[in-house]
């Protein structure tokens, strides 16, 4: 009946239209509302406008027209609104969304019998009105008209998008099902609560479904593309206990071996040195990851060296992720969202390092409300703020941390450090902008600065600077593209200022710029592709020394700059063979170009590299190719379900590394040298085989994994005994390249939830190296394998948390490690009336084993929702047993007697109290 009335109205209007000469106007308006413009048009044209005020937008508009038709003015005014218009006689009728039709296309009306007129189906692309009927059963359902009907050819479908949030917290809701009733179509919201669905023109009923939220049904009339948001109430039912974890079975299901994830929120109670919440220290408690000692600079993963780890912060490289001799991490835990570690099967999109990838992501700021988190401890203060920029669209998260006390240095059991001073700080900022459901931009800036003085005449400084820009584009429902640009810079400086004439300043710099395109493409349910390409440009200033002060006699020296270009193209396919077997195979082709300017030595092939064996020297110009290396890297991982919660995995990976670090220290020092591969130093290579069993128990409450691995390495860069590394123009004459092998077994038992939770980890591993050569001067330990500096066969860690009540909890951290290798003097001899010490083979002996127990107690404030800030106190004691763990052992000859000394970083219990707050 209603449709028939509309038809009669259309016919009446068509008969009422007056054929008249079009009105032409000179008309302008500036920063006016639509209603104001319509009133002015009535006066200028003599026409009357009919509309409802609530249809009109609140925005202001400007326009200027000369001798223009009325239709041109109205088209321009309403082009970005949902208003249509119809002109008849001296009246202009406005409509919301729909169009008033005064004629119909051929065949639109078709009589099927003598008593009734019905509307038959219309070709989708043919211009025709959209009809809908008010159903009595649907009168309580709100109706929303989407878009503005146009007079052009209609599309078969239009895009409806929007955002779904929790009405109380205003937080976006992910994985909410958006279903179209009586139609076999639907979608789900992404992690930011956004959705997009394609709908045909006309009427639809849309319903939301999600766990924990009440469903909503809305009636939509689709005229064109548009948006529709949902605000969902909570729909909670009181249960005894319900625990949800979207990744609860991920360790069994995923295809890669040797992966670890750190839950940033769960580590807040783990007792660590000086009350600092430290992501990388927690990583070192996991099997396969260790440190050479408490004051060591880097991390050793599955027998690899510190420089073989790729540490990424929002896709930008961090060269030195540590503060204060490696005691603190330089990564802010309050701004970190996730930490994924790959130490076995490494995805093809990562390259350039042999051992591992630490993929660290900064969380996105809250786009709806201002919030923050911080801590105040005995040594450092930390504050992170989340700032909305454009509500529901963009946000900024800013974090800063600094030290404000040198008292801890006075407590160290080392005379050379007890009178020292140190300071550091780091800042990070991340801007996130969600343009729409398909486009997102993230920009991260990071800076850290360390300054310390070990002795009164020396000042050491090092800095990290990093910037990254990531643009994510959803190309379609099955394909995502990510474009990445990053720039990293790391420099180290030392100022040596004495009363003598040898004061100097020196240092080095390494920086890189990278661009990368990464595409994830889901072909179908069985094949998911990942492919892309990247290129990185290195610039290294390997060292310089300058006189400090006018009285210094130090001669300025600066080594030639090194440049290199590392590029790669990669491809992988995750192939689900069947429900049990998943295979991920891929290739990565990398190429490295050593670039000029540089003066390159050529050495006699039958002699060791030294100054006397130089045959010729070749000068290369700026950015001229000196040497090119390339290689195909293979990546393969497979997972097979033995049971639903029990899987076996295997992996193989080959890797190439074109950048090296040379150091005969385990702490940050100016003698740490970054070296690019060149005509005389070839890239490092490694292949790793791994296999593992993964089992979950009691509805994923417990996880158990057992992994074994074997890794073979070639062309590892090391140094000759007594080598001079800093400011050496011909560094290749002091270096050796040899073979390495490491193997081991890792066991991890984790309890994910409950009053008692945590994990137990044990690693048995060996890390060996062989430096063999036809020349005795370049042969170490007679060319046989010997233990590396970080070879520690047994490594056990226990992280235990016990919740007494909702507010009070205890935590414990127990660590045991085999003492690391050391070279001891084994005798002495007299030559020309001088006494000399004879040392053992390199790393033949070991320092005493390392063990440490830490305890902490956490007291949270009350859990009232309506309060200014939520807080908790953490009281911890580091090294409860006061174990005097040696960090290093050294020998001094006094009065003809060789005496051994050991250096310890923390030899006494270190109590701390930290106040944490969140608002």
From TrEMBL:
Residues 27-93 form the Protein FecR C-terminal domain. The keyword Coiled coil does not apply. Residues 1-19 form the signal peptide. Its main location: membrane. InterPro entries: Beta-barrel_TonB_sf, CarboxyPept-like_regulatory, FecR_C, Plug_dom, TonB-dep_rcpt-like. It is a multi-pass membrane protein. It is found in: Cell outer membrane. Keywords: Cell outer membrane, Membrane, Signal, Transmembrane, Transmembrane beta strand, Transport. SUPFAM superfamilies: Carboxypeptidase regulatory domain-like (SSF49464), Porins (SSF56935). Residues 275-352 form the TonB-dependent receptor plug domain. It comes from Christiangramia antarctica. This is Carboxypeptidase-like regulatory domain-containing protein. It holds the Pfam family CarbopepD_reg_2. Belongs to the TonB-dependent receptor family.
């Amino acid at each position: 009946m209603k449709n028939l009335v509309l038809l009669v109205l259309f016919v009446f209007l068509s008969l009422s239209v007056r054929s008249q000469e079009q009105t032409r106007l000179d008309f302008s308006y500036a920063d006016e509302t639509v209603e104001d413009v319509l009133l002015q048009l009535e006066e200028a044209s003599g026409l009357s406008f009919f509309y409802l005020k609530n249809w009109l937008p609140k925005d202001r508009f400007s326009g200027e027209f000369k001798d223009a038709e009325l239709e041109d003015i109205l088209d321009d005014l309403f082009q970005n609104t949902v208003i249509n218009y119809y002109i008849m006689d001296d009246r202009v009728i406005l409509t919301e969304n729909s169009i008033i039709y005064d004629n119909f296309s051929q065949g639109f009306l078709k009589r099927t019998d003598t008593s009734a007129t019905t509307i038959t189906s219309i070709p989708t692309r043919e211009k025709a009105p959209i009809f809908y009927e008010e159903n009595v059963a649907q009168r309580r359902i709100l109706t929303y008209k989407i878009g503005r009907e146009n007079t052009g050819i209609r599309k078969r479908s239009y895009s409806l998008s929007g955002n779904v949030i929790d009405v109380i917290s205003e937080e976006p809701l992910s994985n909410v099902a958006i279903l179209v009733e009586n139609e076999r179509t639907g979608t789900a919201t992404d992690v930011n609560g956004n959705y997009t669905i394609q709908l045909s023109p006309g009427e639809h009923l849309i319903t939301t479904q999600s766990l924990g939220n009440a469903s909503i049904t809305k009636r939509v009339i689709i005229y064109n593309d548009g948006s529709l948001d949902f605000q969902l109430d909570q729909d909670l039912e009181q249960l005894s206990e319900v625990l949800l974890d979207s990744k609860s079975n991920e360790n069994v299901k995923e295809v890669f071996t040797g992966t670890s994830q750190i839950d940033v929120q769960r580590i807040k109670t783990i007792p660590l040195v000086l009350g600092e919440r430290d992501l990388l220290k927690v990583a070192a408690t996991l099997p396969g990851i260790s440190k050479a000692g408490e004051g060591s600079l880097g991390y050793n993963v599955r027998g690899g060296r510190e420089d073989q780890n790729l540490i990424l912060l929002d896709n930008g490289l961090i060269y030195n992720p540590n503060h204060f001799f490696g005691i603190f991490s330089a990564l802010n835990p309050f701004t970190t969202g996730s930490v994924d570690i790959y130490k076995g099967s490494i995805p093809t999109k990562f390259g350039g390092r042999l051992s591992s990838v630490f993929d660290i992501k900064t969380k996105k700021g809250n786009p709806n409300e201002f919030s923050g988190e911080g801590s105040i401890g005995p040594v450092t203060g930390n504050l992170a703020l989340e700032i909305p920029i454009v509500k529901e669209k963009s946000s900024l998260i800013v974090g800063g941390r600094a030290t404000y006390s040198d008292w801890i240095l006075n407590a160290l059991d080392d005379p050379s450090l007890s009178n020292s001073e140190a300071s550091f700080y780091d800042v990070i900022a991340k801007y996130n902008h969600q343009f729409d459901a398909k486009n997102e931009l993230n920009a991260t800036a990071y800076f850290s600065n360390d300054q310390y003085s070990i002795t009164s005449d020396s000042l050491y400084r090092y800095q990290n600077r990093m910037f990254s820009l990531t643009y994510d584009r959803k190309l379609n429902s099955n394909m995502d593209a990510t474009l990445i640009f990053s720039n990293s810079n790391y420099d180290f400086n030392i100022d040596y200022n004495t009363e003598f004439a040898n004061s100097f300043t020196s240092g080095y710099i390494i920086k890189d710029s990278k661009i990368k395109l990464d595409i994830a493409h889901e072909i179908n349910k069985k094949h998911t592709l990942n492919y892309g390409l990247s290129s990185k440009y290195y610039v290294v200033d390997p060292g310089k020394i300058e006189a400090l002060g006018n009285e210094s006699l130090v001669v300025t020296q600066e080594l030639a700059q090194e440049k290199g270009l590392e590029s790669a193209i990669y491809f992988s396919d995750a192939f689900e063979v069947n429900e049990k077997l998943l295979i991920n195979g891929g290739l990565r082709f990398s190429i490295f170009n050593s670039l000029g300017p540089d003066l390159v030595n050529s050495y006699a092939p039958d002699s060791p590299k030294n100054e006397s064996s130089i045959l010729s020297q070749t000068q290369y110009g700026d950015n001229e190719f000196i040497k090119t290396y390339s290689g195909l890297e293979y990546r393969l991982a497979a997972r097979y379900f033995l049971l639903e919660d029990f899987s076996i995995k295997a992996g193989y990976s080959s890797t190439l590394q074109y950048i090296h670090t040379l150091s005969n220290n385990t702490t940050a020092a100016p003698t740490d040298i970054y070296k690019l591969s060149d005509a005389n130093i070839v890239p490092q290579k490694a292949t790793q085989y791994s296999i593992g069993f993964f089992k979950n128990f009691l509805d994923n409450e417990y996880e158990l994994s057992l992994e074994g691995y074997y890794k073979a390495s070639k062309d590892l860069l090391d140094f000759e005994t007594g080598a001079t590394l800093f400011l050496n123009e011909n560094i290749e004459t002091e270096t050796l390249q040899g073979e390495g092998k490491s193997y081991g077994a890792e066991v991890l038992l984790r309890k994910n939830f409950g009053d008692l939770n945590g994990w137990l980890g044990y690693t048995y591993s060996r890390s060996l190296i062989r430096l063999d050569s036809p020349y005795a001067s370049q042969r170490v330990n007679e060319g046989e394998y010997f233990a590396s500096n970080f070879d520690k066969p047994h490594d056990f860690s226990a992280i235990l948390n016990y919740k007494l009540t909702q507010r009070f909890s205890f935590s414990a951290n127990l660590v045991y490690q085999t003492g690391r290798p050391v070279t001891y003097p084994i005798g002495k001899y007299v030559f020309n009336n001088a006494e000399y010490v004879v040392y053992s083979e390199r790393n033949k002996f070991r320092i005493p084993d390392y063990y440490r127990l830490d305890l902490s107690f956490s007291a949270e404030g009350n859990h009232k929702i309506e309060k200014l800030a939520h807080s908790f106190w953490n009281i911890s004691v580091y090294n409860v047993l006061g174990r005097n763990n040696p960090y290093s052992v050294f020998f001094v000859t006094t009065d003809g007697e060789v005496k051994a000394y050991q250096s310890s970083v923390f030899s006494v219990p270190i109590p701390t109290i930290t106040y944490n707050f969140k608002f």
